[in-house]
Amino acid sequence: MYDVIVVGGGPGGITSAIYARRANKKVLVIEKFMPGGQVALIGNIENYTGFESIDGFELSEKFFKHANKLGVEFAFEEALSVDFAGRVKKVICNKHTYEGKSVVIALGSHTRNLEIDGEMKFKGKGVSYCAICDGNFFKDKRVAVVGSGDSAFSDAIYLSGLCEKVFVLTNEKLTLHNYAENEFDDKANVCLLRGAKAEKIDGKDHVESLVYTYQGKQESLEVDAVFVAIGRSPDTSMLKGQLELNEKGYIKCDKDMHTSCKGVFVCGDVREGSIRQIATAVGDGAVAGTEAMKHALLFDRNLV
């Protein structure tokens, strides 16, 4: 029996675990990927307070070492389902079932698909959802990035240092928190196609072209890769019927990260209303971990 079970080992999840553990609670973090979650796949981070510039993998290691030194336990398993009906909360994983007095959901989110012809056919053959992971495979080649937010701009900037040419297809309305619209003005090898809509990915054994509509005309780009960066969807399928979700699948909560189920809290990208930044995930985690710890105390006193 754990005082606090944290499902998800990203910045928010690990922070919640640290706060609960510092209150001398028995804490378990369940993470299917690696400590830090998606942060470990990010290249250079320049907007996390206290670090002018730090590699995502390095920051993830720091998160893990901090929690580990405090005595937070880790289980590297995939959570498959949950049972929040009873006073004791259960998280069922692929190897074990864990029980806790309180639970923090920090599942994060996953990349969305373009849902155009050729995307699934060439997935892993030129279609990528992670520029940091796959960018080096296309060094000195022509690539396209599709997206209208921070992740697309970040991918394009990273790829501009590797590739011969980077085309960025965005819609008319950009959603940028960390970048300016003129970010590419000093990058001669980046071409911003604002208002362009990707229609089809084509090729034989691998990506050879991207068909798109731009200014009312259908055009085609000769590219070796298409990097998809159109946002993310929450990893909450296993929570349907257990917690109240909004129409997009994000978990509803109050200002103190309380969900619709007493004893279950949420933090980070998976909650409704988050701008999905490392800093906000950490802030959420501090609140969620503190509230989960309080619930565990009430549990011990038979007050919940």
Which CATH class of the largest domain? Alpha Beta
Number of strands: 19
Q: Approximately how much helix is present in the residues? A: 10-25%
User: In oligomeric terms, what are we looking at?
Assistant: single chain
On the 0-100 scale, what is the average pLDDT? 93
- Count the DSSP helices: 5
Number of domains: 2
Radius of gyration: 21 Å
CATH superfamily of the largest domain, called what? FAD/NAD(P)-binding domain
Give a quick account of the main beta sheet: strands, pairing sense, barrel closure: 7 strands, mixed
The name CATH uses for the topology of the largest domain is FAD/NAD(P)-binding domain
Query: Percent of residues in beta strands?
Result: 25-35%
**What is the string of SSEs from the N terminus onward?**
EHEEEHEEEEEEHEHEEEEEEEEH
Reported CATH architecture of the largest domain: 3-Layer(bba) Sandwich
Structural class: alpha/beta
N→C terminal distance: 16 Å
Q: Indicate the low-confidence ranges by residue numbers.
A: none
What spatial form do the alpha-carbon principal axes imply? elongated
